[in-house]
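Entry for pyridoxal-5'-phosphate complex. Fields follow.
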Amino acid sequence: MDQKKKAPAKPLKSQENNLLALEAKYCSWGDTVHYAEKLNLFSAADGIYLYDRAGTEYLDLQMWYSAVNFGYKNRRLNDALKTQIDTLPQLACQYLHEDKIVLAAKLAQGIEKSFKAKGRIHFNVGGSAAVEDSLKIVRNHTGKNLVFAFMGGYHGRTLGATAITSSYRYRERFGHFSDRAVFIPYPYCFRCPYEKKLRNCDLFCLKQFERLFETEYYSVVNHKTGNCECGAFYMETVQGTGGYIIPPREYFPRLKQVLDRYNILLVDDEIQMGFFRTGKLWAIEHFNVVPDILVFGKALTNGLNPISGMWAKEKLIAPSVFPPGSTHSTFSANSLGTAVGLETMRLIEESDFSRQVPAKGKYFVSRLKQLQHKYPQIGDVDGIGLAIRVEICQKDGFTPNKELTDAITTIGLSGNLRAGGGKRGLILDVGGYYKNVFTLAPSLYITRPEIDLSVDLFEEALRKGLSKIK
Ligand SMILES: Cc1ncc(COP(=O)(O)O)c(C=O)c1O
């Protein structure tokens, strides 16, 4: 991509400064842009790369927090959008169009095949909005406002989704959240909340959860009625913002047994991990558990016209219990989004992601583990498919090192790395309970040479970061 021809460097810089001055004055700072020390302006994207206004190439290892699983400017998905623009670009969501029906059927039939459970799809626009819809389903079915959710979980920033997201930081400014979830420790084995070791803990954390039901005085259950005060348990199979934490395989089946005893619904938030991020269509397919509700978003449209949604078991969403008008949004099931979503599903059906993604992930993790041997500051490397975590620590390989994590991120964004020849940037997303985990979510089409380049760029940024903070 030859962006360099577009404009000489000097006027570009002053144009950029003007834009940044306007941004500082007229854009709300309430989103996450100003988390960064130095702001980057991007003007193009292609495959695994973003480009700034000067044409510098940035290898993207986050792909819009896993919304662009199928690569920037994916020709097939872009064409689906373009065709739809010229046929049925707009339609009020109270009317039907073919793609909505076919997409819902494809998703529901796939889930029926994988989980042997019948259900329906309800579309919305963003992930948080779909989470809100799922909360309505839970309240409608159980009559309860309260739910369990995991510490370290992230379900979005609308008010309902914030109430079930663990960080108090997201709630602090916004008054009292009476329906705040009951937060339970997640099986984060690298930093076990109970300081146990997986090899001999027999899922101690799960037993602690189970103990909550021993007596009414632990506050969640009334044994006289057999009722739990919480109607559902919200989980991400693999925690996303929490730091791409992969639970032990036996955790969720055992959790589900406890939930079933008290008729507590299991709500699986696949917004970040769905659509083959982990090597399966749904991350929960790795864990031998059937959810009652499954929420999805992000990569269904590869980051083009957004569509989110939920699947719920028939008994929760049948028209007799969730009648017309129960929830609605102007842009839900928008025809541009459903056209792309349908094409995404067809692309998935015709691809071999279930073989390719785990193979690529394994190679990526093995390369990062080689780095781990050289740098004790890489405390943990783990992955499932192409959801990969790199936890940055002090020299002891355990104490979280946010300073180094931030330095590496900033160095990546400066666009001055030399690995692979030339001048490049590296885009990394930071998550984790201590904001010290790189959550790598590359394009599912990333090649081996591109993985090698990613690791070389990462190593260069790490080396520079180490010398910067010395
Ligand atoms: C697991 C999970 N749930 C919900 C959301 C919220 O989705 P959105 O940002 O589209 O509202 C996100 C976003 O990152 C997410 O990762």
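NOTE: The longest strand covers residues 378-384.
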